[in-house]
Amino acid sequence: MFSDPTVLSISQLAESLKKRQISSEDLVNSFLERIERINPEVNAYITIDRAGAIKAAQDADNRLDAKQGGPLTGVPIGVKDLFCTKEVRTTCGSRMLHNFIPPYESTVTSRLKAAGAVMLGKTNMDEFAMGSSNETSFFGVVKNPWDLTRIPGGSSGGSAAAVSAGLGVAAIGTDTGGSIRQPAALTGITGIKPTYGRVSRFGMVAFASSLDQAGPMTKTAEDAALLLQAMAGHDPKDATSIDSPVPDYMASLNDGLKGRKIGVPEEYFATGLSTDVASVIEEAKKQFQDLGAELVPVSLPTTKQAIPTYYVLAPAEASSNLARYDGIRFGYRCENPQDIKDLFTRSRAEGFGSEVKRRIMLGTYVLSSGYYDAYYLKAQKVRRMIADDFKAAFTKVDLLLTPTTPDTAFKLGAKTDDPVQMYLSDIFTINVNLAGLPAISIPCGFSRDNLPIGLQLIGRPLDESGILSAAHAYQQATEWHTRKPVL
Amino acid sequence: MSITADTVKHVANLARLDIPADEVEGYVEQLSQILGLMDQLNSLPTDGVEPMSHAVEMLMPAREDVVVNSDARDLLLACAPDTEDGHFRVPKIIE
Fold first, then answer.
1. Which of A140, A209, A308, A483 matches a 20 to 30 Å C-alpha distance to A18?
2. Residue ranges in chain A modelled with pLDDT below 50
3. B31 to chain A: nearest residue by CA?
4. Are B27 and A327 inside 8 Å of each other by CB?
5. Residues of A with Cβ-Cβ distance to B11 under 8 angstroms
6. Choice among A24, A155, A156, A241 that is catalytic
7. Distance to chain A for B51, nearest Cα, Å
8. What is the pLDDT of residue A1?
């Protein structure tokens, strides 16, 4: 019935699957064929699980035939290669884990599979999720489907490129400092980072444990609501997961914007915004007003300190988390180690790429004797001030509206030799992780050279419903999210 | 606080990373740049601010002290690069 089912959203497909106008197996085959054709150019996937996907699709078809399907039954998705998937290689974009086949399944993927979603494969990413451009992957750079000479953003660049290029109806990503929202913005898709603790981290390869959070990357806010519904919820296997009921995101999706107060933080518009992003966001602000929202100027004075704060805390946590890669229990081991120390130091030096090593070095330095107070403790205090800024703003407004990124996707290689410039790419997203808040990025226009621009909506803790319904209201009134790159 | 070649070698040893001699200077330069960025934090007074280690105010939950994992020894050992008789194998540690 459809000339090309790979362009449809979850909600559009679910209807056809339910009515049995299309089978999940046919759908999966359409995607596998498209992946075979387009993935060599885009490099969105590291591993394709052809046999697993077809088997899961057949199971889904049986359930749909028996009228036992839910909204995700039979829906083919990509999963960032950071979620442990039983018997399917999980590399985290690293040589260190190039041969790692997990003996267990992450909570996120087991919940999605239980809801009937079909995993097509594992998507490419910056090594250990450390990067903003997807150029640090051991498995090669990912390219932006809108312009193959540009980066797709990172670290969930493979998931973003997969959704943007129609290589999956949706994909799952993770966000430690912007890794869902920044690539979503740069590839013209929707991506939500939930409140810290809303989604279980069990079975996610850890980067910075106090900041990491998983979320859906989709064509629409409605699809994000459907996926998040299946992913969210308390998990006894993650001691930091929040034990509070998950609201029905679909039930509040049409709440609209009438009477909602949206804060516009002045610091996000102060300097460094490209003219294209500035004018597109200005238009979007008007649209939100037209839809009934009241825009309120607010201030988040500690905004500028977020990048240095993050680059103390995240590498510190990473240096501890990545200490587990010792060349003994799993992952890469060097050839012919002379002694145990040689085994540790060479396995780690050969198994990790340069950005990961840089961050381990940084993290080890800021935690080392004599520097702990000056860097780590100081950054923890500034983190409190950043979180307090948001708290104060949310006494006056319901949501915050900002650009997701200061500029559109840059050229491949443009910032690889300058880590500081690369780190500044996440200037508008990192604050949200430090404060643990939920935020969504949605497409809101294009630059003059036809590159997507994203708008970020930030909510109060656990108010995923609020940002999803605001994003949905905007998407009902605009068509930016329906545009697709020509491939 | 300035980074020298000795700092890089010291930190590399703490982090158990083998950094070849010809890469040390590169680390000195890049880590110095990044720490320059971090030094911005010093301009902000933080007296009396409670450090924040976590986004959610919560106590670590406790659970009953019962075994919940099944015996997965062989499954886990299968992930290791080198094993023998149900153990991980490493180079000789004690002479």
1. A483
2. 1
3. A362
4. no
5. 361, 364-365, 368
6. A155
7. 4
8. 47
Numbers of helices and strands, H then E, in chain B: 3, 2
B54 touches chain A (CB under 8 A): yes
Considering the domain architecture, whether residues A210 and A321 belong to the same structural domain is answered as: no
**pLDDT single digits (tens) B47-83:** 999 999 888 888 888 889 999 888 889 999 999 999 9
pLDDT of A158-195, one tens digit each? 999 999 999 999 999 999 999 999 999 999 999 999 99
Please, are residues A480 and A289 in contact by the beta-carbon 8 Å criterion?
Answer: no
How many domains are contained in chain B? Answer: 1
In degrees, rounded to 5, the angle at the alpha carbon of residue A157 between the alpha carbons of residues A467 and A227 is: 40
CB-CB under 8 Å, A337 with B54: no
**B14 at the A interface (CB within 8 A)?**
yes
Annotation says A80 is catalytic: yes
What's the domain range around A179? 5-256
Tokens of A442: 């949605």
Q: State which of A256, A291, A323 marks the end of a domain.
A: A256
pTM listed for this prediction: 0.97
Domain that holds residue B28: 5-42
Per-residue pLDDT at A270? 86
Examine residue A438 and state whether it is found in any structural domain, yes or no: no
CB atoms under 10 Å from CB of B78, counted, come to 12
Distance of alpha carbon A98 from alpha carbon A89, whole angstroms: 8
Whether B80 is covered by a domain: the verdict is: no
Decide: helix, strand or coil at residue A45: strand
> In degrees, to the nearest 5, what angle opens at C-alpha B68 toward C-alphas B66 and B72?
130
Residue whose structure tokens are 């500028």: A304
Domain-embedded: residue B54 = no
A242 and A324 share one domain: no
The interface predicted TM-score (ipTM) is: 0.95
A447 is a catalytic site residue: no
Do the domain assignments include residue A250? yes
Domain assignment present for residue B67? The answer is no
Q: A157 with A224, same domain? A: yes
B91 CB neighbours in chain A (<8 A) are: 337-340, 342-343
Neighbours of A290 (CB within 10 A): 10
Of A80, A113, A143, A219, which residue is the catalytic one?
A80
Residue A425 placed within a domain: no
Give me the number of domains chain A comprises. 2
Is residue A139 one of the residues assigned to a domain? yes
Residues A252 and A320 in one domain: no
Domain end (from A363, A378, A393): A378
- Decide if A284 contacts A444 (C-beta within 8 A): yes
Q: Residue A442: what residue type? A: I
Residue B11: inside a domain: yes
Residue B30 predicted with pLDDT over 50: yes
pLDDT digits (tens, 9 = 90+) for A17-54: 999 999 999 999 999 999 999 999 999 999 999 999 99
CB atoms A385 and B50 under 8 Å: no
> CATH code at A227?
3.90.1300.10
* Amino acid present at A370: G
